[in-house]
Amino acid sequence: MAGIEGFSMAPFTRALNWSPQEVNVFLVDVRKDINDRGIHAYWPMYCIVGRKPEISA
Question: pTM score, two decimals?
């Protein structure tokens, strides 16, 4: 929760042209929703890991 402002400020101000004040007002509602136990938000996440093959002599 502490980093949500830093995570959100650049995309909202640069891509959506929101003012920093608009972002902060929006984040008030986001924080309320995150703490609301009645909301169950799930989404699939994928983690793909790869390694460069070793060079054989």
Answer: 0.62
